[in-house]
Amino acid sequence: MHSGIKRLGSAVCRIRTSILLSHIVPILLYGSLISGCSSTASRKEGPDRPLFHNDLFAHKTSIDYAKGFTLSYHGNYKVIQIFNPFEQTADTATFVLLQRGTKRPPGFESAQVIDIPIRSLVTMSSMHVGLAGFLEAEDIIVGMGNLKYVSSPKVLEKIAKKEIVEVGKNQMLNEELLISLHPDLIMAMGSPVSPINRYPALQEAKVPVLVNSEWVETSPLARAEWVKLMAVLLNKEEQVNVRFGKVEREYKRLKALTSTLTIRPEVLCGLNSKDTWYVPSGDGYVHKFIQDAGGSYHWAETRSIGNLPLNFEQVYPVGLRADFWINLNMGERETKSELLAKDQRYSDFKAFQKGQVYAFTKRLNRQGANDYWESGAVNPQEILADLIRILHPELLPNHDLKYYKPIL
Length: 408
Description:
The strands form four sheets. The protein has a five-stranded parallel β-sheet, covered by helices on one side. A five-stranded mixed β-sheet has the order 13-10-15-16-17, with helices on both faces. It is 36% helix and 17% strand. It has helices spanning 2-42, 126-134, 153-160, 175-181, 200-204, 220-224, 227-234, 237-257, 285-292, 312-321, 336-342, 350-354, 380-391; strands spanning 69-74, 77-83, 92-99, 112-116, 121-123, 141-144, 165-166, 185-189, 209-212, 266-269, 272-273, 276-280, 296-297, 307-310, 324-328, 357-359, 405-406. The chain is built from 13 helices and 17 strands. Among the domains are: 115-247, Rossmann fold; 258-406, Nitrogenase molybdenum iron protein domain (Rossmann fold, 3-Layer(aba) Sandwich), CATH 3.40.50.1980. The protein is α/β, with parallel strands linked by helices.
């Protein structure tokens, strides 16, 4: 009897298994068909679809602060868009960053193509040297606009060995020399007189030119984040995520020290030069530095790309009451007496009388290169620490000024 029940149970199990498989198999076959269609569709070429089914870039980065460029990833290439902030109408340059040895995607006929990782770079600004230095990539620099204004010891050594050539000063490029050099990329500096497409001869020679306008960003972190542009050109996203993450966390930590302050000393910036006094606009990164360091600023509500050109009479009333006078671009050994030799009216300024005058030239070398514009541009947390030490010394009593120095 027990054996009969056992045989009956086995038969029931076989029937149930057969019924279950009859439902599952069609579902699995249907899923395989859908998967096959999806796989085929993903190989379709186009500007929004990768040519490769597999993503070649294991490490990615994101742009969280900078407004001057965008970044996207597409299988075997990346797309960078650079915006020109100096035009009233939209002016955008598109760059396809193509992994070496892979096929160029269709749909980007007007875009410049840059093979990555780049192996040779021409820089036209000391800030660009700072970008390379942040990622320990100074070795790729083969040309510079002006060999005089360099702070990086590694780059100075390459210049001494004649491994870097001078390709033109004041943004005026020696195009014939550059075409013969044929670098993987020229990084130019954006300005109101430097439209994105100002180098047609180089573009025709297949020498990519990327215009960098980081200096018009509205915050120090946004400006420093242009280091991620250099990282995507070098396939160094993993490294930049770690290093920029440290910069970001330290900047925010320092900023938090001043967030609850009720007393915020007023700050004046700059110097009168040739009857024009350029002061930072309210929506510029310099004002953001002052704000984050716990200071107040007379022109905080102004809006302008770059600095505001004023005359001495417009600045004079602010100078009479400002507690601190900072961001003076002075020589290595200039003094208060030399300031007065330029204009006796400086002696009326409150900050001058109280000895609260500071220049950002502590790291000025004998050639006149100022590391404030180089390593300082990609390390805003260190500049912020200097400013907090100046405006609120009690918050950072043990901090030694790195980029600023008092004018005595």
